Amino acid sequence: MGKEKAEKFIVELAAMKPILVESMLPAGERVTTGEMPIAITFVKYVFTNGRQGAPLDYVRLERMLGDCHFAVLNNKASHPNAGKAFLDYYLDDESMKILAQNGEFVNRKGIYQPLPGADRIQYVQMENLDAKAFEEKKKQYGRIFLR
Amino acid sequence: MESTKLLLVLVFLSFTCEAAAQDPRLIDAAKKEGGKVIIYGSPETPVVDAVIQTFQKKTGLGADYWRASAMSVMNRAMSEYRAGNALYDVVLNNTDPLYIMAKAGMLAKYDSPTAKKYPNDQIDPYLGPISRLGIVGIVYNKNVVRPENVPRTLEDLVQPKYRGMLVMADPTLHVTTIQ
Prior knowledge:
The structure holds two protein chains of two kinds.
Chain A: H1 3-15, E1 19-21, H2 24-33, E2 38-42, H3 44-48, E3 56-58, E4 64-74, H4 80-90, H5 93-101, E5 105-106, E6 123-125, H6 131-145
Chain B: H1 2-21, H2 24-32, E1 36-41, H3 45-59, E2 62-67, H4 70-82, E3 90-94, H5 95-103, E4 107-108, E5 123-124, E6 128-129, E7 132-141, E8 166-169, H6 175-178
Parallel strand pairs in B: 1-2, 1-3
Antiparallel strand pairs in B: 5-6
Helix pairs in contact in B: 4-5
């Protein structure tokens, strides 16, 4: 979806008056209970909530949006060595397998979460915004979604 | 004889891999500074707790985890940092809040030996390797949405028949949705 098309889609989506919640987690909860039929949210909830019996599935979009996650050390950490030891472990295979078994999409070839089709999901990395652009987007979406 | 050689190679490989992953000198130093790491992050608590359990078993180090939304994690971390009382050692979060924190000079660059296992194009110069991905898509409840009404594309969601059926994170509050 190009920029122009994406902006048109956002305006049209806002016009649908979706229920807005604090984060992806409550969006996943609302669709899990059936209170809301459809959510734009993390696909991992299909697995994590599904293993507790939630009747969820996801649309096999050609490409989805991917939000990159990192593990980073505080430069004024009170426990810098413990922090480094944790990062060494967190970034390694064993931890990545645990994350995947618990439904996370990890960035390691050959380690996939158990959701059917997880290994075939293609994603586009989300746009990174600096603090100024971030505030501008917030205001812009406020005008579109909250009017 | 061949099987003995193979066994020796495997033992050697497992030793070297282990050494690369967890440096005993680092663990000793961590024990001297209290033996515990404080982590703030946005991944759900049960997931991180599962990692912490094996981390503790492997290293003997403790770990406390505080979870909130990506934006709340950034706000708390920045408030503490500016007040000169940053309690966290490690942050697990997504790109934008971490870039904002990096720009404020709050993050340390650490070249973890395990980062070498990631392709170069998956390593951010400031934040290190991309460890996991939040994949955002369309999730639906099969008991409520009939198969013939399941949307096929993102654009389908703006069809009138889906009015009043959608929930999403607030794009004026939620970092990932703002992106």
